[in-house]
Write a structure and sequence with these properties.
The protein is an alpha/beta fold and about 400 residues long. It has helices at about 10-15, 30-50, 50-65, 75-80, 100-115, 130-140, 150-155, 155-165, 180-195, 210-235, 250-255, 285, 325-330, 340-355, 360-375, 395-400; strands spanning about 1-5, 5, 20, 25, 70-75, 85-90, 120-125, 145-150, 170-175, 200, 240-245, 265-270, 290, 295-300, 335-340, 380-385. The strands form 5 sheets. Strands 5-6-16-11-12-15 form a 6-stranded mixed β-sheet, with helices on both faces. It has a 4-stranded parallel β-sheet with strand order 9-8-7-10, with helices on both faces.
């Protein structure tokens, strides 16, 4: 399929290019002392990802440890309530550790093992990436440092406990707004001092090349499975695929399976409390081109051109930029990016739980909310939603802030 001059038959061979760019987005804007480390990771990844031994070990891990493939569930009661549009969810909440994050964490930790590294370093917002990396570190016998903002530590206490039980060192970040952006700052700073013995395992399709490409490639298993499963269940492709977007790893994972198909793709950002700067984290809708954390993308900026303060009810989405590939697909028009607010998200959180017996992560509930909205607009057809994680981590916070609806 050719879309606005881009041939999606060969898309994954051409994007990113050798310097890590998706069009004008991406690249590796890092300090001189980290350039060698990025080159080392890039060379190792391109060598190892073609190795039958590496691929075989990763497939075995996915099958015997992660519990892949995860299923697709048909939301029969919710679909009937909404009308004639059929809703389905890809159940990444059933992936071991409760979210899609383990897909790339096991790959990154396996890469660290092959490179002879002794430690993995990462940031986390909602805690799912932290839990996944702590799980991977325990599996491979690696040390693990997780940087997490004070605000998110309070909101995501269950995941903090899980990380510590798994043996990770959870390091509280108190600077600035003390959320995801500050956690990334702290993790990058730590990595710059330990790169000889450690590897930075970024939590999304973000950061300097090769991380956006690596994380997308590891997450593409979601889209590969989903496409095959959906066709097997229904005999056809879905009319639309919906996923939430903060950094955007779960979205790029499922979109990867459908980019070359006549399927509408929707990436959903958090509108939070409203359109005023500081009340949302919808960078692709309201942002402009800018560089942060080693990559060029679309970001929310303050009056000085620095990363703006952001907010979302979902800790995993409160980041002032998005992955460079999402910025590219946004400009290209291949993916439609839209928003839902906190209230719509919380309503969807309870609706999915009550109607289908599935408690979604509050991040994933953004996609559920938009899927419901889309189903009301469509007369017929089918919508596949990526349920990127389960909501155990969010229940205490949601009940405390919103009560039981």
């Amino acid at each position: 399929m050719n879309f606005n001059g881009v041939n999606f038959d060969t898309y994954f061979k051409n994007y990113p290019n050798s310097e890590g760019f998706f069009g004008k987005y991406g690249g590796a804007y890092v300090a001189e002392n980290l350039k060698k480390a990025m080159e080392e990771i890039t060379e190792a990844y391109f060598t190892i990802c073609k190795s039958s031994k590496f691929i075989g070990e990763l497939r075995k891990i996915r099958r015997e440890f992660q519990g892949r493939p995860t299923p697709i569930s048909y939301l029969e009661r919710l679909s009937t309530k909404l009308g004639n549009v059929q809703l389905y969810v890809k159940r990444e909440d059933l992936n071991h550790s409760g979210a899609h994050k383990l897909n790339h964490c096991m790959g990154e930790a396996l890469l660290a093992k092959y490179m002879g590294k002794k430690k993995v370093i990462a940031e986390t917002g909602a805690g799912q990436h932290g839990v996944a990396l702590a799980t991977a570190a325990a599996y491979f016998g690696l040390k693990c440092d997780i940087y997490m903002g004070s605000v998110d530590i309070k909101k995501q206490a269950p995941n903090v406990a899980r990380m510590k039980i798994l043996g990770a060192n959870v390091i509280e970040v108190k600077e600035g707004l003390a959320t995801l952006k500050e956690a990334v700052d702290a993790a990058f700073d730590a990595y710059s001092k330990e790169y000889e013995d450690a590897i930075y395992c970024i939590g999304s399709v973000l950061g300097p090349h090769p991380f956006p490409m690596m994380v997308r490639d590891f997450q593409s298993v979601v889209g590969i499975e989903a496409r095959e499963q959906f066709v097997g269940m229904t005999g056809e492709l879905p009319d639309a695929v919906v996923a939430c977007v903060g950094g955007g790893s779960n979205a790029m994972g499922i979109f990867s399976g459908f980019l070359n198909d006549p399927v509408e793709l929707y990436g959903i950002e958090p509108l939070g409390r409203g359109e005023q700067l500081g009340d949302h984290a919808a960078s692709l809708k309201y942002g402009t081109e800018g560089i942060m954390h080693g990559f060029n993308s679309i970001m929310l900026k303050d009056e000085n051109g620095d990363p703006a303060p952001v907010y979302s009810v979902a800790s995993g989405l409160d980041y002032p930029s998005s992955g460079p590939e999402h910025a590219f697909l946004h400009d290209l028009g291949r993916v439609k990016y839209d928003v839902v607010n906190d209230d719509e998200t919380v309503d969807a959180f309870f609706e999915l739980a009550r109607m289908e017996g599935i408690i979604p992560a509050i991040e994933s509930a953004h996609a559920v909310a938009y899927g419901i909205k889309l189903a009301k607009q469509m007369r017929t057809g089918s919508v596949l939603i990526n349920l990127s994680g389960r909501g155990d981590k969010d229940m205490d916070y949601i009940i405390e802030k919103y009560g039981i609806r």
